[in-house]
Fold these 2 entries.
Entry 1:
Amino acid sequence: MADSHAQDIDKHVRTYIIVFVSLMALTLVTVAVAFIEMPVWMAIAVALFIASVKGSLVACYFMHLISEKKLILVTLIFTVFFFVGLLLLPVFTHMDAIEL
Amino acid sequence: MGKNRDSGKDAGREKLGAQEHGHHELGFWRKYVFSTDHKVIGIQYAITGLMFLLFGFCLMMLMRWQLAYPEQPIPLIGGLLGDLRAPGGVMLPEFYNQLGAMHGTIMVFLGVVPLAVGGFGNFVLPLQVGAPDMAFPKLNMFSYWSLFCGGMIMFASFFMPGGAAQSGWTSYAPLANIAPTGQTAWLIGMIFLITSSLLGSVNFIVTAIQLRAKGLTFMRLPFFCWAQLITAFLLLLAFPPLEAAGVLQLMDRVAGTSFFMPSGLVVSGEVVQGAGQGSPLLWQHLFWFLAHPEVYVLILPAMGIVAEIVANNTRKPLWGYKAMVYSVMFLAFMSFIVWAHHMFMTGMGTTMAAFFQTTTMIISIPSVVILACLFLSLWGGSIRFNTPMLFALAFLPMFGIGGLTGLPLGLTATDIHLHDTYYVIGHFHYVVAPGTIFALFAGVYYWFPKATGRKMSEFLGKLHFWPSLIFMNVIFMPMFVQGLAGVSRRLYDGGQVYAHAGPVLGLNKMMSFGAWGLAIAQIPFIINFFMSIRMGEKASDNPWDATTLEWVAPSPPPHGNFLTEPVVYRGAYDYSVPGESRDFVPQNQPTEA
Amino acid sequence: MDIPYVDAPRADTGLTNGKLGIWLFLASEVMLFGALFATYIILRTGSIDWPLGRDILNVPMATLNTIVLISSSVTMVMAWASLMRKDLGKFRLFMGLTVMFGFGFLIIKYFEYSAKLHHGLLPSTNNFLAIYFTLTGLHAIHVIGGMAVNAYLWGPGAKLWKTRPEWFTNRVEYAGLFWHFVDLVWIFLFPILYLL
């Protein structure tokens, strides 16, 4: 019983190493891409995309979200929804404001 | 992970403390002041909340003098206030503004929430789910003392140079940015209060989800527990943006940043120095992102209390329990996307205004469902008109008025006329004062026997109830009239400067006498509360013949609450079940099978 | 009665109290940083002269800091994995490394901040610097807090391993979740502030 448990951890450790290397690589990519000429909106989209990939790796594998219980996942989904609302609704309101 | 699936009674359990096994008695300080027992902490929160409610009420009574008798010296205490606040006993406008801002802040954050959530939530929730305590008792204690520190800072702010915060409880930029020192104290105080709530909400959610007794499924939870659970989620996710905003405003005030300071701001003829390009509206967004869910924090625990008392005193199950549960979940969700209905008059375009108006109209639906279910629960009931039930019954139409008057405020077209008028003040006071506070009174009368082992006097209870109900309406109903006539809120002279308001200003005197009458009506309550602790009629474990688990524990419950671990076999409201010998069956009574 | 579900999870939720508690706390932290990101968006979209991050800020230092923090995340999860393998020695090694990486982050940050102050670049100078200092400052406070907990678990807190190994392992897991979150915030902060 303890052995299979240890084997599980071995598998996990392998994953951690792979994720670590990926994160390092993506960090270098993030910096390299930043020096390529592109329109601002594209630069933002690319930067956020790469950051999201890195973030997902940390969340899914270091924080074990990929195998986490439903209750935690549901809480986080709602949180992300409200987070996005907090980010977008104020700036939409500003963009929609009447011009004086 | 965890191959031992909670095997055995002691596996994976945290010992509650020395008292648990009677190894050695805790000293006075550890038992009554720095206790980690949820019941002691609950009572600490409740007493703190009640005292701040009284203090906040006193601030308002001073304001009402100024509104009834503008520029007249305040009798009795006018001389005590000093020349900085009331030279010659006549209130200065700056002091009026301090009273206004602090009345709101104290009532919301130091009065209602500590009593409704900290007090009732802490004391009742673990008992109703059959738990020995909250999930994190030490965190619970820390939450209370954080609140206490915040409260002391808020109180102390009155004595700082320039006085207390005076830019409304809403602390709008840029006015709050340039206000005197009391505003800085307000911001620091808020950080303590918010931290208290955040840590508390983690405790409440984990307790409600993880510590439910065996057999207590979610759909067997008393509605009170659902209300507290959902409230905790609101606090958890909505408060952090205000904490962030508070830090940003602190930095604007103390570190010279311009988060909320626009360019070219002119104050008293001088251009304000600084980087500028800040956004005052940003403050409003961040503030209302919290403050809208906050109003549901103010009402949901009250609905929870009323639900328990109504079921108990109609001797019937709640009508539409499932609908109420789903409604409260939907309400919480919607509450995060309606906030800018407080900002309709900030130059918002029609698209976003339509968005927020729509979400606001949608959010009224679950509120109406809950209220309707509570009303329908009365139908066919054997109603007992004891004091808790009187307050709970009064809550229903009072909250109804409050809720209905919210509709013209949520509709942009009518809000143009009503925004920032006394109509708004009337609306939210109906919901909070004869609404929530009545429910909180009901809760005090209802759970007093559980906490103390004695009942409060019914006679004094009724003496408290009837005048309170009358005076609440005397104070707040005329506000709708004044608001519709165009009297703005936060006016030092009560509207005298408006020619169009002339006909309705006479109401100010009546409203002020209503406020002072309401104060006198609280005297029977205060006497009753303290007298009954020692001299009240002794109460059994279950004096109300109620079904929920807190009534299984002794009155008052010992440390650890239950003598044996409770097991639940049925829903929360088995009243008047056909075939049963009594008109109620406690949740922990096994079924026949 | 004792409080259950500290060492082992509750059957129907599959969670221990602490696991649920720390995730709830992290959810609130998402909203806290969210408010500051919203602030960044509003200030930048309303600004006429928003500077390019890399013109003002030290990109090499921040890249190094990113590498340091990601490394500390790996050592943190390895520290927990060591406890799962019942290897207290390896735990001590990895947790020690995590704390050291944390120190490294703070030292680099110190150099970064003092260089700014030396050049007279303060939060009050403009809104970009204001939000930069606030976001990275709040993040740094979280790093310090996480390090304090990690240092405690590495040091005096490790006594718990002898009497309640499951509870100790769980506590390390919760500390790890917080630490990974701190790393996650930085993963977004870095490109947003320094590169865009």
Entry 2:
Amino acid sequence: MNETTTEQLPPEPPQPKRLYRARSDRVIGGVCAGLGRYFNLDPIIFRIGAVVLAFVGGAGLLAYLAALLLIPAEDDPSAEPGGTPAGRNRWLVILGVIVLLCITWPFLLGGGLLLAGLLVPVAILVAAGVLVWWFVSGEGPAGDAGDVAKRAALGIGVLFVCGLISIGGAWAAAAGGETIVAVVVIAAAVIILAGAFVRPVRWLVLPALALALSAGTVSAAGIDLDGGVGDRDYRPASALDLRDRYELGMGQLVIDLRQTDLPSGDVPLEVDLGVGDARVVVPKDVCVATDAHVRIGEIRTFERDNHGVDVDLEDRPDAPAGVTRLLVKANIGVGSLRIGRSGPELDLDHGRFDRGPSFTDLGRNSACAS
Amino acid sequence: MRVDITSVVAGLCLLALGVVLLLDAGGTLDLRLGGFAPLACAAIGATLLASGMTRPR
């Protein structure tokens, strides 16, 4: 007769409570949700705390980033009680500890503002990288520290490429290639739309958006580099030397008419500037009528001043018989337009153009009929 | 077949931006910052909203 004995296994010792980044109920990386679960508190308390601390020298942002790197995710095999941290990149853990030390060091030893000024932009960049990669690939900040860092690096790479594309788009639009940019954006939109039904190409969204927004901003700002770049100084001697149109892409454009022998009656003058400062200096016996538009910047004509976004200034006074009336039509992208007599604010010889105590520094449009 | 909502929304926003740019380049539309800024914000916002509503992997 066989006798079977049942061995009583000793009860397993209670597992220590461990802190994980929660997979469910997370907003970004599951740090606050994990803390809430660990301390048996509502995660919203930790979320509010993180946001509040983010505005205190950026400590909340840095702490969140450090927690993202240091606290294992719920589904990370190395996070299991018996697991080893071999799956994680140890150097990243060390980096996380250094970040944590950097957070606490300023509060312990002082000099935090300087360090925060360096670390907060880095933290924002890394967080932006994670979010960009999340958008592009759909892979959230889950997994171990190595995965998070890898996604952050890829996201920063995408941001860098988008930055280059933005610069290219802005330059192309300013150089007169807006049509090409528009066609490229439409082609990208069609590919993305078609991909939505076949195979999504989300990675194309951000570069295309960067291209469209930069080109659109440049076009809306009226920046046109067709007229060239640099400083232009025109001092025509007679009406024959006076051009109908003065154009400059970027720089300072000065049209000094003080020595110009202008005929009586209406004399048209068109000023077109992309980015910079345009000045029109007129003699005392000339009446000036202005029709100017500045996308971003300032218009100052004699006693009138207007500044901001999409600034218009229209002033059409009549001139007495036998008096020259200069019809200035100006279109400035980003910058300023000044029309006036030479004075402390319009000192062409010394290049000074500072804001004076009163508008009379630009003189008065006194040659016009009252 | 599963349609990627984010791609649809982003594609439509980009299409709108591209058409606006084309009209501006052709002289049909005079694009100004006061009009372009809300359009750009709406395009970014709609894309982010669509992305946020899509469950991350």
